[in-house]
Amino acid sequence: MDKSMTDIKSVFQQKFGALPEAIYSAAGRVNLIGEHVDYCGGKVLPAALSLKCRVAVRTNGTNIMRIAATSIALTADIDLSDTSRYKNLKWGSYQAGVADELKKAGYNLVGCDILYDCSVPFGSGLSSSAAIEVATAYALAKLGGNPIDKVQLAVLCKAAENNYCGVNCGIMDQFASANGKAGHAVLLNCSTLEYDYVPLDLKDCVLVLANCNKPHNLVESKYNERRAEVETALRLLQRQYDVANLADLSPSQVEQYRAHLPDVIYRRARHVVTECERVKNSVEALKCGDLVAFGRILNQSHVSLSRDYEVTGAELDALAQSAWEREECLGSRMTGAGFGGCTVSLVKKSDIQSFIAGVQEQYTRKIGHGAVFYVAEIADGIIEEVI
């Protein structure tokens, strides 16, 4: 839970000996539909959450970025004249990577003190890393007097995660964190970075997030393996089709060339192209206010992620299946990279507590430990807070 403004100011003063000059925040995100298609050039439909990373900041008159946090004891001092040497920090490599990319892009950076207060659960699949990156980038850009372009900041934060932290992620997480809009989802073309805001009118329903309490680590997981598999699929399919991205293909085209693909590669490609269709159908359903159809698409997505892309696991499958059995739930699926993390469920507002209690009981019985639930509020991506 977010600390109060007074608490953040107090902790900042304890750690750095002065009060902060400003407080900024960047959001975690929930991806409603379009999983594991961002790095395949597809369209995704994320939304920024009220769960966020807040940063209290102050220039310090040096060339050092000093970082600390409210929730962990680790600190780091990052020399802005040599940002390349902090890749192995236990905590702070994401921040150093962002500084490194901003420097390479020509941003003016100044020494500063930054205190992090993050309510996005770590390892939950709700993009705490992207929230930390975007909050850091925005703070450094503001303190250095640089022009602010939220799309460019998202691109640079993605580059930091790719190049500095070793995670071969796509652009979705950082883009939603930087460019999210309250009451809307973001329909993002990950190939061109063109985007539209889709009004998210859930009527008498809400989004309920369930953290399976199995933290994932994308660097150590099979995320990069999946990325390599779809790159193989694209190379093989390009022998038949003149396309730049796997997402440019239709499900029927993949089916026509199925005999030429190893089974695992075929299933990975099938997930990508059918998930792209589900994004299109979801936008149509939401624009028409057809939440029953949208819920059904969520279920279909989870099945594909489980069977074709194999990124769910026992915990996420148990959460989704438990949700499907509840009458108050219109649909549920894993969200994020998988290998742990969260599900997102569309639930009738009047039955939230019975849904949570029922899923918790079944999940605990199946897995042996409980989940943590959040009722999601859709918020702006970057906020400059008044202090």
Structural summary, described in words:
The chain is an alpha+beta fold. The radius of gyration is 21 Å and the shape is globular. The longest helix is centred in the last third of the chain and has 26 residues, at 263-288. Helix 3 crosses helix 5 (172-179) and helix 8 packs antiparallel against helix 9 (291-307). The chain has helices spanning 5-16, 93-104, 128-143, 150-164, 172-179, 223-237, 251-256, 263-288, 291-307, 313-324, 352-367; strands at residues 22-33, 43-59, 64-69, 76-79, 112-118, 184-189, 195-199, 205-211, 329-335, 342-348, 372-376, 382-385. A hairpin with a 5-residue loop joins strand 6 (184-189) and strand 7. The two termini are 19 Å apart.
